[in-house]
Amino acid sequence: MAVAAQPLLASALLALLLAAASAADTKNNPADELVSLINSNRTASKASNLADNQGLGCIALQYIKAYKGQCDQVGGNKKPVDSSFIDTFAPNCGVQAASLAKITGRLLACQPSYPPPAQAFDMLIADERSLQVLHSKNHTEVGAAVTGTSGGGPYFWCVLFSNGKPNSSFTVEGGVPKTAHPGCFSGNNDECSGAISTGVGAWTLVSATLFALAGAFTL
What is the model's pTM? Predict the structure, then answer.
């Protein structure tokens, strides 16, 4: 009976492996989801759609890291100075200094537990000032990032807007930003690290199933 069950078990394993590969391949990135929400809101308000720039997204992640996990400093005096963009943020991302463009808007939010993109959007757009930043006609591109601290909370979300020229501003050397994990940023096809990752959960499920199936095949 154990031998007869083997084809069925093998089929189940194959289905799980394909599902996991699909989940990992989707590279579900909450920073990209936030950019999608931003553009949907802008176009609904007759504002232009913004280009999702991976170099700017990586810099948004560096912007978060400048706070060193201090959630209570958001909105305070710890705002990174403008020189940080060329001195620290751009080099850490591999963004060419000559391609930096003006930052036309910044949105930042933080809370102890992880907020999904829709909730993060509501946190970021919490008043009239932030709504004006969102709908500004000065923006042409956007970059977003999210990360936790030491593998957990607090969780920061950051959105940077720019008036740069898409495809020529915030240009990344070699076309791929430097490794900036933990965290996720928009515009790159990278899997999320340090926030929410679907791939990890999928492969954990497969590992557990492999163990169970190994036991079944020995019966």
Answer: 0.77
